[in-house]
């Protein structure tokens, strides 16, 4: 498996993969693939990584977020792994590579909305102080490379059509 930045030829495959991966998820409203396209269109797709093994089997998007009092934070999501390749470390590998690349461009933290069972093992945690639209603070998770985040988390405008970060 290799992990690399998205290329123009990946865009339709990322859309299809995202639709397939989220389709069975009860919390999905089908907006995840359009969010990635909107991020790209808006110039907010800071980092888009694909995992390739034979074909495209995983994808993760990172985009700028704002949190009062901190700078250079990014949001993780959407993230998708091909159904037949889930729970084999592909998602963790995409996230680890993404975080390393974010640090290289000066990121001081990364936040997401998601299940602690999935993101806890990847190093994310919640602190009860970072909030997002009244959702359970336990699913507002982050990795900080600097200050502890407090206050309201805001994702890029592409997410405003939805209520979920990942
Ligand atoms: C979420 C997703 C990207 C994770 O990718 P993955 O390749 O399966 O993740 P990994 O194999 O690296 O697993 C990371 C951790 O999450 C856990 N995990 C993965 N899927 C899980 C699930 N459905 N329920 C509980 N834990 C899960 C793994 O056990 C692992 O923890 P461990 O190291 O303690 O074993 C993938 O399941 C997916 O595409 N889901 C559908 C789309 C989606 O829901 N995206 C994110 C919404 S929060």
UniProtKB/TrEMBL annotation:
Residues 1-146 form the N-acetyltransferase domain. The keyword Signal does not apply. Keywords: Transferase. Gene3D superfamilies: 3.40.630.30. The keyword Ubl conjugation does not apply. GO terms for molecular function: acyltransferase activity, transferring groups other than amino-acyl groups. It comes from the Bacteria. This is GCN5 family acetyltransferase. It comes from Actibacterium mucosum KCTC 23349.
């Amino acid at each position: 498996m290799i992990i690399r930045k998205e290329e123009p030829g990946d865009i339709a495959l990322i859309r299809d993969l995202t639709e397939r991966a989220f389709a069975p998820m009860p919390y999905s409203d089908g907006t995840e693939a359009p969010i990635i396209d909107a991020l790209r269109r808006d110039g907010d797709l800071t980092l888009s990584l694909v995992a390739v093994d034979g074909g495209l089997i995983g994808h993760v998007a990172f985009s700028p977020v704002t949190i009062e009092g901190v700078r250079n934070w990014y949001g993780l999501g959407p993230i998708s792994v091909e159904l037949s390749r889930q729970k084999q470390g592909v998602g963790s590998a995409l996230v680890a590579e993404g975080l390393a690349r974010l640090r290289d461009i000066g990121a001081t933290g990364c936040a997401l909305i998601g299940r602690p069972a999935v993101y806890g093992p990847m190093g994310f945690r919640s602190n009860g102080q970072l909030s997002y639209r009244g959702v359970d603070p336990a699913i507002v998770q982050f990795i900080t490379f600097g200050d502890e985040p407090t206050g309201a988390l805001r994702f890029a405008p592409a997410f405003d059509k939805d209520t979920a970060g990942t």
